[in-house]
Amino acid sequence: MSVGGANGRSPGTSSMHRIGQAYKDRAAESLRVKQEHIDFLKNRKVSNDYLRQMPRRWVPGDVYSPHDLSPREMDKWRRRNQRQVDVVDILGLRPLDMYKNFSLIQEFTTSSGQIKHSKETALRPVNQRKVAKMIRRIQGMGLYPTIHDHPELIRSEFYPSEQRRG
């Protein structure tokens, strides 16, 4: 007569085997769920990347031509990020009060006296208008030249060895 059961194992071995098998099954199920979640996140990231590249949002029923999917048309729908703060805000300057500061004016004008575009100055639209008004005002007063940089600021280019006496 065998001890422990029909298959020759002790009575506790069968339950230990079932517990071990259940643990393995739970671990495999957990791994499968994690893998599904990772795949879902990867697919969502790819989808979001495509949506980011295509700024126009289409709704069911929209009629479009292949030209509407071209990069040139998509650029028309792209949102422009508005600058929240710029150098004028950070420094707390009032451009209309800084009209006597020639070095500041030179930063916002070209060497030929033209006002630089906001893409070059990186100013918010409201501050770009204030700076442009300041430049037009000082040029209108005749304090700043309209066709070249201020002579005090370009003196060092013509007379590099001469030190400014103070």
Automatic annotation (TrEMBL):
It comes from the Eukaryota. One of its GO terms (biological process) is translation. The keyword Iron does not apply. Residues 1-23 are annotated as: Disordered. One of its GO terms (molecular function) is structural constituent of ribosome. Keywords: Ribonucleoprotein, Ribosomal protein. The keyword tRNA processing does not apply. GO terms for cellular component: ribonucleoprotein complex; ribosome. Coiled coil: none annotated. This is Small ribosomal subunit protein bS18m. It comes from Cordyceps confragosa. The lineage of its organism: Eukaryota, Fungi, Dikarya, Ascomycota, Pezizomycotina.
